[in-house]
Amino acid sequence: MAVERYDIAIVGAGPVGLLLSTCLARWGYKIKHIDMRPVPTVTGRADGIQPRSLDLLRNMGLKRAIMANEPAKVYEVAFWDPSEGSKGIHRTGTWPSCPNFIDARYPFTTLLHQGLIERVFIDDLQKNGVKIQRPWRITGFSTDGVDKQYPVEVSIAHVDGDQQESFRTKYLFSGEGARSFVREQLKVGITHKDPIAHVWGVMDGVVRTNFPDIKMKCTIHSDAGSIMVIPREANMVRLYIQIASSTDADWNPRKTATTEQVQETAKKIMAPYYIEWDRVEWYSVYPIGQGIADRYTLDERVFMGGDCCHTHSPKAGQGMNTAFLDAQNLAWKIHHVESGFADRSILKSYESERKLIAENLLNFDSQYAKLFSQRQPSAGEIGHVSKTAQETGDAEQHEDNDFIKTFKASCEFTSGYGVAYNENVFNWSPSHPAKSPLFLSEKAGTTTQRPGRILTPATVTRVADANVVHLEQEIPLNGSYRLYLFAGKPSVTKGAIADFAAGLQKKGSFYQTYQRSDVDNVPYHEHHNPHSHFFTFATIFAARRPDIEIRSLLPEVLARYFDHVYADDVWDQRVPDAKAAAHAKMGLSETEGGVVVVRPDGYVGCVVKLVEGSGTVDALDGYFASFCTKRVGGGERAGL
């Protein structure tokens, strides 16, 4: 009997496994996806989708299905601290969940039961021919080298033990969670940033209360303990309640509590307000510990992601969001290797990029969880400090306690927009093999776009139909690089655009080298990839829409992207004096423009000046040559 072969085997159908599976299924890969649970998540688990993750889900075409579940939306966070004279709690302030200084399309956190989120992915997978095999578990694997194309042999079994299977695959991915069989078999250790210092209970339920901020996210500190309130869909509320702390005289990291005990504690903490439960949907007790896997892969064949690689407090709402970005990062890199676009060495960057983000998360979470679990000063104590501060002329620094200061300072990170990858072959820097003087740099002040960070959002008018659109959402997550040609004023850049188009069509250019083999038979209505599966172009003119005639202003190679030509004529409050707001937000000349290269996951790769002659395309050839499999231009190959 022939051995079944797959492009990838995915173990675990939580957020990280499902997003990875969804991307690769859409891009045509043969997937074996198993999960130990007989059904998707029924209750509890992760529930917070941060603004950046909502951008990603929209770019995948899944946001509408998520929002159809009518999730709660958190726009503000309220802080409650002890009142003076041990008289319960009082509100000390509120703060936006995603403050205005963050340029976000969706400045709120979306709260929704993880099972509902999982089902959106599962429905999409079924449309692409992938069904989760349940309830099955992995029992063994080895990279034996017997089959060089499918080097990983995997064994799985039904959880009841009455059925077994074995197959071969190009890649194996563990999204199993904190208790990972794959990680244990690889003997990859977990480095704990901090010892377990707190035990918390989490309870989902429908409540009755006169607490005024029950529909908002709240952090509550009282003399009786601490609570975090998270509104949920269907009139539910999630409460995180501290059960034990290492500062307790009888500290026990395995301490637990019943539902009734936690409810009684919650009532004491929330006094003078009352709270009663109509029903409890889900309840669990967990210790807080910050840990990170020492490796995410050993051989670029067997990978891990999500909770398998990083564990932390759930109160900052980062677990599922970090898992999403783990999966997205790995998906496009596997796709580019297997499609013959990029060298296999790029897979090393999955660990280097994503482990850095996890380390940043754990450092933040350790501080956040510690401060949250500490008793905060009462209003009387704050008043005494404020009075003393005023007398000494040092009032400013005592406005917020340390917890609130940390919360405010970390908003960019927790929203997802603070993710910043270090320089490498994808994220240009002066040390990159591509050395053209036309590369622009945030550090040098020649652009606002920093390689390794998300593209700044911009609103423009689509020329073809006069629709006002979000530029960063116009090209879907399809595995392609996105090249945004900010074309400046047509009268000024006509020559540069003509030379740019000629350079693209020159033999050996990055664009010509990776042209589709079926380019002459591509369907007329293919908007995104008419010439190449690896590049999509968008052209943005600093002009009014009625003044743009696409086929007059653009050479055919660019005019073919008819539905991706835009007018930069929409005013933006963040650059109120700009005549071409999108150009200004990118830090580019409104007259001369420039080219912004964006990775398939939406992060900036490089920014190049638009000039007459071959220089602009030569610079891009050098950038892509550093990791492509085929020889591009005269660029130098680089290793990671």
TrEMBL record:
Keywords: FAD, Flavoprotein, Oxidoreductase. CDD domains: PHOX_C. Residues 6-364 form the FAD-binding domain. It comes from Meristemomyces frigidus. This is Phenol 2-monooxygenase. Gene3D superfamilies: 3.40.30.20, D-Amino Acid Oxidase, subunit A, domain 2, FAD/NAD(P)-binding domain. Belongs to the PheA/TfdB FAD monooxygenase family. PANTHER family: P-HYDROXYBENZOATE-M-HYDROXYLASE, TRK SYSTEM POTASSIUM UPTAKE PROTEIN. InterPro entries: FAD-bd (IPR002938), FAD/NAD-bd_sf (IPR036188), Phe_hydrox_C_dim_dom (IPR012941), PHOX_C_sf (IPR038220), RIFMO-like (IPR050641), Thioredoxin-like_sf (IPR036249). Residues 419-631 form the Phenol hydroxylase-like C-terminal dimerisation domain. GO terms for molecular function: FAD binding; oxidoreductase activity, acting on paired donors, with incorporation or reduction of molecular oxygen, NAD(P)H as one donor, and incorporation of one atom of oxygen.
